[in-house]
Amino acid sequence: MSTARALEPELINPLIRRSVSSQDINTLTDIYAQDVNIAIWKRCLSEAVITDVENLLDTATSLNTSAFIRAKDIKGDICDGLKSTEIGNAFLDCTTELVDIFCTLFELDEVGLRLRLIDSPMCPRFHVDRVPCRLVTTFAGPGTQWLEHNKVERDKLGHGSKGLEDEVSGLFRHQADIQTIETGDVALLKGEAWIGNQSAGIVHRSPPYNGGQKRLLMTLDFLP
User: Fold this and answer.
1) Where are the beta strands (DSSP E) in the chain?
2) Which of 11, 45, 158, 218 is most exposed, with minimal Cβ within 10 Å?
3) What are the φ and ψ backbone dihedral angles of 118, each rounded to 5 degrees?
4) Cβ contact 214:117 at 8 Å
5) Can you give the pTM of this predicted structure?
């Protein structure tokens, strides 16, 4: 499946978008469906990966790494990008696999990887991304939160919120409308720059901060 295909104009009604999720990795290919704006591969991290992640959380005082990763040397570029961080082989293999999946799915020669250790309060406001598509996965801690397309009042995003918090701005009606990507799950978030998806990018945010809890978040992006 080519990047060109991902960027072809889509004619479907922008008011109609849906989510898909499955334990089958092939559900990620559903992101190409015109009416899908989030695809979630539900998976369980292996014990070896969990151990590596726990060791990283115990030893790393900070981590906010961005790197360009080439499809022809994924593991080597990840090692170079994280050379100042001790990572285990299982975690390295898992990360390499995800980059390979992203590159293969969109036929990309290079992607942008970001790995962040988050252990302080953030300002979680719902928003959309001005990108074609972003891969998001959380190795530890709470995952990204998102809203179904038909549950969002988009005119309440950004300046439309008039400075009010998401919960009181009218962006969505009920707390139960907030969905969460579970730890270990892999999600593809279709953004506003996917041609034909204007005004239909998935609305999402970082989860509210829980004091003392660490998150290990990885994202993959198309490069300009």
Assistant:
1) 18-22, 36-41, 64-70, 110-118, 133-140, 145-147, 178-180, 186-190, 203-205, 215-222
2) 11
3) -110, 115
4) yes
5) 0.90
Query: Phi/psi zone of residue 96: left (φ > 0), alpha (ψ -120 to 50 degrees), beta?
Result: alpha
Judge contact between 120 and 30, C-beta under 8 A: no
Query: What's the pLDDT at 162?
Result: 67
| Measured distance CA(85)–CA(63) in Å, rounded | 8
**Cβ partners under 8 Å of residue 59, min gap 6:** 86
CA–CA dist 40, 189 (Å, integer): 9
Residue type at position 173:
R
* pLDDT averages per 10-residue partition of the chain, 224 residues: 46 76 98 95 97 93 93 97 92 98 98 92 83 97 92 82 76 88 97 92 90 90 94
SS3 177: helix
